[in-house]
Every structure is written in C-alpha cells, then in structure tokens.
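Q: How would the structure tokens look for this protein?
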Amino acid sequence: MSEAEKLYHSIGKNLPEAKASKMFGAQCLKAPNGKALAMFWKDCMVFKLEKPLEEEVLKSLAGSPLFNPMGNRLMGGWVQIPFEHAEQWPALAEKAMDYVKNIKK
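A: Here is the predicted structure in token form.
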C-alpha cells in the first residue's frame, strides 16, 4: 500500500460520519446521505467541492486539475489533488463532507 493510500485510509477513519464505499471501481468516502465526497484515484485524492472552493483550489494548488477519469469528460465540482499536496487532503475532506452532506438526494 502506498503512502498516499495509507493517508487516504487515515483520513477516512478520522472523518466523522464518512463511510467507505466504491465509485468508478475506486475507493471512495460517502456522507451519511449516500453522496460521495472524496475518492482515491492513482495516488491522488479527488474531492467534491463547492464552486468557490473548487476555483480557489484549481488556482492555488499546482497540478490539481478537474477530475477527468476517462480522459474525455471533465467532472465539474470534482478536483484531483496529487500526493504532493497531501497536507491539504484532511482539510479538503472536511470541507467536502460539510458540502456534500447537505446536498438533498
């Protein structure tokens, strides 16, 4: 298991209300309402973020693009954060949880 994956699991265990699940065949964390808030993808974490935070992260964290799992369709609202910015992962996970848990089904 890579250091990135170990950190992902640590974040999931320490994030109140998060439930381990799968999305696109990858490990993900879901809020109590069943909505995904983060996933682990190729030694990166991908977070579902509100638009203002999404834009801020895209500008401030180099190498953090919109998530594009198939290579031909960007997923707005989902930002892929590489392991080089791992110090940001816990705070982004908390912000993603705060956002996603309030989305109505």
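The radius of gyration is 12 Å.

Helices lie at 3-14, 51-60, 89-100.

Upvote if useful.
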